[in-house]
Amino acid sequence: MTAPRREARIRLDALAANVETLRRTVAPAQLMTVVKADAYGHGAVPVARAAVDAGADWLGVADLGEALALREAGIRAPLLAWLHTADPDFRGAVDAGVDVGVSTRAQLEAAAAAGASVHLKLDTGLSRNGIAPGEQPELFARAAELERAGRLRVCGLMSHLSGASPDDDETQRAAFANAVAAARAAGLDPELRHLAASLAALTMPDARFDLVRVGIASYGLAPDPAVDPAGLGLRPVMELVTEVAAVRRVPEGTGVSYGYRHRTAGETTLALVPLGYADGIPRHASGRAEVAIGGLRHPQVGRIAMDQFVVDVGDAEVRVGDEVVVWGDPSTGAPGADDWAHAADTIGYEIVTRVGPRVARVAV
Ligand SMILES: *Cc1c(COP(=O)(O)O)cnc(C)c1O
Q1: What is the pTM of this model?
Q2: Strands (E), 35-152
Q3: How confident is the model at residue 166 (pLDDT cuts 50, 70, 90)?
Q4: Is 80 exceeded by the pLDDT of residue 180?
Q5: Looking at the annotation, which residues are catalytic?
Q6: What CATH number is given for 238-363 in this structure?
Q7: Which of 18, 30, 32, 34 to mutate for ligand 1's pocket (most ligand atoms within 8 Å of CB)?
Q8: What spacing in Å lies between the alpha carbon of 33 and ligand 1's midpoint?
């Protein structure tokens, strides 16, 4: 007895092509490829390597654990981590040559204690981490003092957009530009000003400044429903595939899966797919999504369970062992992760980052 094949195929060629496309799009700004959360579920080390080989100037991660894992894997590119505890120890970051994003006075002092290279993270309206607007004057003055004393280097100023609306993002962009001017007046001279993630990098040229931090678009998925990645030359990197585990011919009126949320409308063939919500298939998409088998799309029917779901393949000739593409590149006829996101009332980010541990990541 063997387990069914369950693979997230990671198209590193598509990732590299996306990085090259993004680099051309945002030039002369530099490109940071964001590889936090295991490269959005794609595998941080192979993705980081492929991104750097394809020309990414920087890599970005959320925390220092993620940054140090990349360094241990031998990845030498400029690297920034921006989410820390209230009272961090940055010596490991300095030893590994990792820049740190700093959001508070305590983090600034920790950076000085370690001699870190710092990007001051400003809250321009998201109300998450980042230095609150009222604290910025004092923090800029203190950072300038520490820099003059040779205790740290401020090489970047950064903020992050809400994506609430183009007007809201423009308000944040203006607030960021004002904060940069205030930092300069306080004696700082950061060489990298960065604000834009995927959405603004693609749609708001004024927001690109010196560097953009691009995550989701690198993986060929949409940062916003208004953006069509394929139209921008970006291809999905992850293809989630498995094999048909069972096939059954059933009569009209047959109840399918928990709660009989689906009954067959006529005699048909049901194919069993050995992936469930434990593997990242969103239960909320039950009865609303499709998969591709043999190049044809078929509807998923009934409740998605922990380990399996059912597809109604009608009269198509589907056999046990046939490959099932749950999501992949829509240009091949398969549904995209963004289609599953739509079916589950969520975003592609959540679909790809939640693929579970039973699914092998296979770089191709
Ligand atoms: C996750 C993240 C990004 C990347 O966002 P995308 O929308 O995936 O491009 C950029 N900057 C920060 C601070 C982030 O946390």
Answers
A1: 0.97
A2: 58-61, 79-81, 99-102, 117-121
A3: very high
A4: yes
A5: 36, 258
A6: 2.40.37.10
A7: 34
A8: 9
The model's confidence at residue 1, banded by pLDDT at 50, 70 and 90, is low
- Cα–Cα distance between 289 and 72 in angstroms, integer? 40
- The atom number, within ligand 1, closest to the CA of 201 reads 9
Sheet holding 296-301, edge to edge: 246-250, 268-273, 309-314, 296-301, 290-293, 323-327, 238-243, 6-10, 360-363
Nearest atom of ligand 1 to the alpha carbon of 82? 13
Q: How confident is the model at residue 129 (pLDDT cuts 50, 70, 90)?
A: confident
CATH of range 12-220; options 3.20.20.10, 3.90.78.10, 3.40.190.10, 2.40.50.140: 3.20.20.10
Mean pLDDT of all residues in the chain?
A: 97
**Residue-range domain boundaries for the chain:** 12-220, 238-363
Q: Per-residue pLDDT averaged across 245-274, rounded?
A: 97
Measure the CA–CA gap between 220 and 47, rounded to whole angstroms.
Answer: 13
